[in-house]
Amino acid sequence: MAGSFYRVQCPDCENEQVVFGKVATEVSCAVCGHTLARPTGGNAAIEGEVTETVEAR
Known about the structure:
CATH architecture: Single Sheet
Distance between the termini: 11 Å
Strand order of the largest sheet: 2-1-6
């Protein structure tokens, strides 16, 4: 699978969760519901701070 996973920090509640870099649906924060990533047809539009690129092995 081509693409990366990112650890994204929510700008509202500072919760961190892992998000795929090419999302097909909108991803919301599991704690407060703020939108973290939106699909754009390619790479996702990430609306939080990317704190780490997670490598899948």
